[in-house]
Amino acid sequence: MEKMPYQPGMDRPMTSATRTATSDWRNTLPVLTGNKVTLRELQVSDAHSLFAMLTPEEVSRFISPPPTSVEGFEKFITWTHAEREAGRYVCFAVVPHGMNTAVGLFQVRQLEPGFGSAEWGFAIGSAFWGTGIFVDSGQLVVDFAVETIKVGRLEARACVANGRGNGALRKLGAVQEGVLRRSFLKNGEFLDQMLWSILAEEWQQAKALWSSGRVH
Q: Are 149 and 180 in contact (CB under 8 A)?
């Protein structure tokens, strides 16, 4: 999800309508625990660490420009809560074990009402690249999307030039479906993107193999 669904100016006060919840995850996101990380709801107090982690050029070069200030991240976090309560979007903070601040985030947004299909994306501070945090977090997020939100098809886009992002998606078992030509505008230039997908039945089959010990 290189084009972030949030843009400055989209934040709005939460109303009684957006607070209406029909499932537990709309009330509040669960805490997901992996081998290396804990995933939890973003908190306004995460704004400082997210600003430090996600604004450097090496992190932001292949995504839509992140908020340019701590205050901008605070507005983004408030927006994620409203969108989650409306049932359209979820965003998890990535917190490595032994820490209490967010070093990145994972997002899932519906592409059609009811989350029959959805798009997901991620950004993690470069100090944590190559540590296994992405795969640990990604498995938790995909499992949550499939098993809890009941997403049938989960899509991701990554710029062709983003070798790290494409490699990370491949590690999770995503299937490359094709190239979306000139589909992402970055710094005045249109870039090609790879389209990846994970189907619910594929994910469940992979989980069954892992639990049987046939895949290591």
A: no
